[in-house]
Design a protein that fits this description.
By secondary structure, the chain is of the alpha+beta class. It contains ten helices and ten strands. The protein has helices at 7-20, 44-52, 71-83, 90-103, 106-117, 224-257, 269-298, 306-332, 343-357, 360-373, and strands at 123-125, 140-145, 148-159, 166-172, 178-184, 190-196, 202-214, 218-219, 259-260, 263-264. The strands form three sheets. It has a four-stranded mixed β-sheet, covered by helices on one side. Helix 6 runs antiparallel to helix 7 (269-298). 48% of the residues are buried.
Length: 377
């Protein structure tokens, strides 16, 4: 088996590293010292540089001005973005754009996707439903009315909603079918209530009160929301991996310089063993991430549906990112809590990613249900 990434994918990584090399994690106020949002906007300057490097069109087809790469390439770029805590809606915009291209009307794709690639259009998605615990599509009801669609309901914890041009809203029809609606932020009947993430970013509760959209803005293809949900989860696992790798690197640098009893603390067996355990966590996170991303990218069949591989990746990412930052805080001592040092920011972002992924126990239960429904022969 060949696990080597293609030349195009490796080129995307190099381009991402070049763009993210100038990003400073401390560019906004500390979430530990800020009662509300750390900023009202995402990093627009970085967004422009991503567009200039053609990274926003990375996963779009060439006819829309993109490079035609797959979710694996997106995950590789997301991994690099998390290492510097890049404050951009890269996952949400690219994931929704890919869903539009894959499941939407060609006219809708032609109107939206070139603008996405040029950085002119920002997309986000409500993936948490009404409470964050129920399936997202159950939070909003969609019904037809004279050739258009009416949306009623709530989506909570929507990232970058105040800055996005379009919000992808999963909803259910009266027949119980899951659909995906693209709603302009300023649409009549749509209102936003401020929420704040654990990492200090501005989120929103999106309330829809008889919001009317045209039929062309609703994606009703079977499996569209399920596919997008899987891509969002896999992309979040990629963010967790990149963040964890940077945190372990920071820990290695610190323990290699910090001396106790005349020796670097990295040479102490207890320190080395803890760091080695976290390295194993990261390698498991990496292997399960690429398996899930490969299943989404290729539509390859397997003994379990792709949702099984995604569940395994989420189990490792949710548990692994938490363990990595906890160990990093422990090995840094009190220095890890110093708000003049960036580790506390990584800890806050890691907690937000863990919350976004959900508890490992829930994914283990979902995996058990899949195994029961698809016995491995």
């Amino acid at each position: 088996m060949d696990f080597t990434f293609s030349e195009e994918q490796q080129a995307a990584v190099e381009a991402a590293r070049a763009v993210f090399s100038g990003v400073v994690p401390d560019s906004v106020p500390s979430p530990a010292l800020t009662p509300g949002a750390v900023a009202e906007e995402f990093d627009r300057a970085l967004w422009a540089r991503l567009a200039g490097a053609d990274l926003l069109g990375l996963v779009l087809a060439p006819q829309y001005g993109g490079a035609g790469l797959d979710p694996l390439a997106l995950c590789l770029v997301l991994r690099e973005s998390a290492k510097v805590l890049a404050r951009v809606p890269l996952l949400e915009t690219c994931a929704v754009a890919m869903a539009v291209e894959r499941f939407g009307d060609p006219a809708l794709s032609a109107g939206l996707l070139p603008r996405v690639g040029r950085g002119e259009l920002v997309l986000t998605v409500g993936a948490n439903g009404r409470t964050g615990h129920d399936p997202a599509e159950l939070g909003v009801r969609a019904h037809e009315d004279g050739g258009s669609w009416i949306l009623d309901g709530v989506q909570t914890g929507v990232p970058w909603a105040q800055c996005a041009d379009l919000i992808a809203i999963p909803a259910h029809t009266d027949g119980g079918r899951a659909v995906l609606a693209l709603v302009p932020r300023g649409q009549e009947g749509l209102s936003l209530a401020e929420q704040f993430s654990t990492s200090g970013e501005l989120y929103a509760e999106v309330d829809l009160d008889r919001v009317r959209i045209g039929a062309e803005a609703l994606i009703a293809a079977d499996g569209a929301w399920e596919w997008l949900r899987g891509l969002l989860a896999t992309g979040t696992c990629a963010l967790a991996l990149g963040l964890g790798e940077r945190v372990l690197s920071m820990t290695s640098e610190y323990t290699g310089k910090r001396e106790q009893f005349g020796f670097p603390v990295a040479t102490f067996q207890a320190v080395a063993v803890q760091a080695a355990d976290r390295y194993i966590d990261l390698r498991a996170m990496e292997a399960t991430l690429w398996q899930a991303a490969w299943r989404i990218s290729t539509d390859a069949s397997g003994p379990l549906p792709a949702s099984g591989d995604i569940a395994v990746a989420k189990i490792w990412a949710s548990e692994g990112v938490r363990r990595v930052v906890q160990t990093a805080q422990h090995l840094h001592g009190g220095f890890g809590a110093d708000t003049d040092y960036p580790l506390h920011r990584y800890h806050a972002w890691a907690k937000q990613l863990e919350l976004s992924l959900g508890p490992a126990a829930a994914h283990e239960e979902a995996l058990g249900d899949l195994l029961a429904a698809h016995p491995l022969g």
